[in-house]
Structure formats: structure tokens, C-alpha cells
Amino acid sequence: MSLRPEQIAAAIVASSSLQELLPRFHLPDVHMEMIGSLGVSTQAMQSFLGAYAPEGRRPKSCRLDGNELGLIQGLFLALKNNVAIHRSRRADLLFSLRLSPSASSVLDNILSSVPVIYLKRLKTPCPPLRHWIYEDAVHRQRYEDWLATNPWTPDKRIKTRHYPFYFVDPTDNNLQLDLKPSQSAKVYDADTKELIMFVLADVIAAPHILSWMTEVIERGCAALRSVRLSDPGKLVVCGYSSGSRNEACLGWSSTLATGDMAKVFRKKATGELDRFNCDISNVFSLTWNIFKKIAPEEVLQDYSNTVKLYDLPPMDGNGRQKKFFEIPGLSGPTEVHRQYLADMAPVGGLVAKNYVRYVHTETNLTKYMNSFTTFRGQDSSKGGHFYNCRYGIRVQGGANRWVTWKPTDAHGTSLQDVDYSDPNPTDFKQVGLGTSLSNRLPAAIFGAYMKMIWEEDEEED
Ligand SMILES: [Fe+2]
Predict the structure, then answer these.
(1) Which domain of life is it from (predicted)?
(2) 5 C-alpha vs ligand 1 centroid, how far in Å?
């Protein structure tokens, strides 16, 4: 039986479940635009999804007449014909993300052309430890303007906001390497030959994926409370985290921010927090898979060994995602691709918007840390650059940029030309994520295990 497009469209719009399915099969837009209804219930349609094939038999329990069944049959035929289109679009998407086997030669060319640089470790970090970095007096003034408003902090004893400033002179001999937003580099210690930094520009060739990641990250920055309230900008922990300092216990991060931007996330009925939890897990899963393709061997080993050693759980949308993650297709968020091809990201990570921190060191479960900037709206003159102060390296902020460094090496970010009082400023925007595995996670996993035992004991009592 052959069907006219409007008949197929009528069958499609009759079922919400099929409307959800539709984008995955790329039916022509004309079908979407047509209005019609067969009055088929969602439950009836769901039974068809599993039981009714184009060549299949009529389902046993069915309240549809022959004409309606014919329409459904035509719909399934149309879906089947579009599977080939779907597969080719999926292949294009994975190629643009450098994830498909056919992209490996492109990726090899990119990675093999990354310049290898050897640098001497500086005697003292430059810019020095516990200094705020600035490259323009205006950027320093904007930070001081924010300080003058006496912004809220949970602990007045923390004086880091008032650390001294350090002006970076581009001609300073201590600045051994200055990477522009489009430049990549693999940097080794000249004496020990150890990898100290990996910077990769143009990581993926999928602008719509960067836009999607940015949108999800910004939602997280609006919804959740910053973990560094004394620093300007937003730094938020996502996924499973190690809990409070007093009680290490693994749990899904859900400490909501205050203010209007978080309002919609505070109302459970909106489902916005659940939607964000799934979306951010999808973002991190994709990042993890990209990481496994581009990271130098020693960085990859560092993460893989840590995940294995501590048996870290996957970042799974707080238990909702079991086997796959979802990313938007080439035509945008209405076209969803499920990826079964690789594992989920471990535990969780950080997302950041316009975040700045003075020069510092820190420790992690891993030796290396990574950041991936998904969006940068302004040119380099506006600040917000990453510094590896131990080796005098500046990495100028840029979108679609991967940066790996050792957190034990002194590092920091330069002040930006932005209104720090505005939670959603229009004059500057830099957004990205970080792969951070806290060194409190093992204790937190043990804490969660003990909590489970206690709860079981209480139930038995
Ligand atoms: Fe840091």
C-alpha cells in the first residue's frame, strides 16, 4: 500500500511518542508541518513501536481499523527508508567530532602537526604565587570596582580577594611562551622531559555542538552554587561530588544557587534540574570520548588508571543514564543521536563562566587536569587568559580549545574586562568545563558505602 505524505504526517502527529522518535529518522520537514490526527493513543502507538514492522503482522490487541493500520504501516516504511539517511547523518556528525574511525587520519594529521616545545622551569613562578594577574589597567579597575561593592562571601576570614596584583608585560623575559587562540603546543620540561602542558586549538569541527555545550554549561552556572564564592565569576561542580568537608559522602551535586536565574531550577515541578542533570552528563560523556581521542598517552593513562584504581562511578545523570549518551544532530537539538560507542565520563567535573582565580597550586586525584573552552565571545585584548606560571606560559583564551596542565604547577587566570557584579553580563563571555577528580573522592565513596550499611542496619532494626 502506498501512502501520500499527508497521510504519513497524520499518523506521525497522532502520537507524542512518534513525534519524539521522528527527529532521529529525519523525515522531511513537510511531514512535520502537516496537521492531522488519527486519534491513536500514545499507549497504542507504543505497542506498535515494538511489535509492528513494515512487513509485520497486525498486532493481536488493536482497536484500529484497516485504514488506520495502513497509515501506520506506511509510516514505518517511511521510517525504514530514512534509516539510511539517519546513518549517513550520524556518520557525518561523528566525523565532525573526530570520533569515527574514518576521522582518524584527519586527527592524526592534526595531532602530529602540534609543535613540540621544551621549556626550562622558572626559578620562581611568573606571575608569582598568590597574585591576581592583569594585562590592562582597565581589567584591574573593573575587579576593584567589584570589590568596592563588598560582594558577599561565606567566610569573611578568607583574604584571597585582596591578594596583590601583578601586571604582565608582554615583553617580560619570564613569559617564555605566549600561545594565541589558534595555536597548539605540546610542552615538555627541558630537563626532566616530562609533559607539562598540552594545548589544542580547533578540537572539533562541529560549531553546533559547541553551542549546545555552552548552553548546557550556562544553565548549570545559573542553577548551581559556585564552589569558589570568594572568586569572581562562576565555578560549579557537576555530577557526583565528595560532599561537605565535614562529611565526605559521594552524592549528586545539587546545591542550588540563589537569585532569579536559579528560580526555575528550584521548582521541582518544572523538571529543569532533572533536564540539566541529564544534559550535563551528555556533555561530559562527549568530552570524555573526545579526550580519549586527543589526549597524549601519559594524560590518558593518568585518568584511566585513577578511574580503575578507585573504581570511580560514571557520571550518569544521577542514575538515569545506563547505556548511552545523547547529543544533538547536525540540524540542531530536535535531531538527537544516541551514542553507544563508548563509555560514560567518570564521576563529574567542573563548569565555569567568566571564572578567574589568582595564581595558586592544588592537588587532585590525577596528575593532570584538563579544560575545554566551548565559547569565547571577545578578542584577546579583554583578558581571561590561562597562565602556567611555573614555566612562564600564557594560553590566550579561545573557543574550541583544550588545555592540559599539572595542577601542582603554579597557575591562574588573568582578570577580564567584565562587570563582575552582573551574573549574566553582556560585555564578556567565556564558558567551558574542566575534568576534575577531587582527591576527596575515595573517602567520599567509602562514606557513601558506610551510609548505605548504616541505612540497611536501621531498616533491619
Ligand atoms: Fe587551579
Answers:
(1) Eukaryota
(2) 57
pLDDT tens per residue, range 320-370 = 877 777 888 777 666 777 776 567 888 889 999 999 999 999 988 899 999
Q: 193-231, pLDDT tens digit by residue?
A: 999 999 999 999 999 999 999 999 999 999 999 988 889
CA of 407 to the centre of ligand 1 (A): 6
Spacing, Cα 178 to ligand 1 middle (Å): 19
Q: How far is the CA of 408 from the centre of ligand 1 (A)?
A: 9
CATH architecture of 111-447: 4-Layer Sandwich (3.60)
Q: How far is the CA of 83 from the centre of ligand 1 (A)?
A: 46
How many Å lie between the centroid of ligand 1 and the Cα of residue 160? 14
SS3 per-residue string spanning the chain: CCCCHHHHHHHHHCCHHHHHHHHHHCCCHHHHHCCCCCCCCHHHHHHHHHHCCCCCCCCCCCCCCHHHHHHHHHHHHHHHHHHHHHHHHHHHHHHHCCCCHHHHHHHHHHHHCCCEEEECCCCCCCCCCCCEEECCHHHHHHHHHHHHCCCCCCCCCCCHHHCCEEECCCCCCCCCEEECCCCCEEEEECCCCCEEEEEECCCCCCHHHHHHHHHHHHHHHHHECCCCCCCCCEEEEEEEEEECCCCEEEEECCCECCCHHHHHHHCHHHCHHHHHHHHHHHHHHHHHHHHHHHCCHHHHHHHHHHHHHHCCCECCCCCCCCCCEEEEECCEEEEEEEECCCCCCECEEEEEECCCCCCECCCCCCCCEEEEEEEECCCHHHECCEEECCCCEEECCCCCEEEEECCCCCEEEECECCCCCCCCCCCCCEEEEEECCCCCHHHHHHHHHHHHHHHHHHHHC
Ranges of CATH 3.60.130 domains, the chain: 111-447
Q: How far is the CA of 196 from the centre of ligand 1 (A)?
A: 14
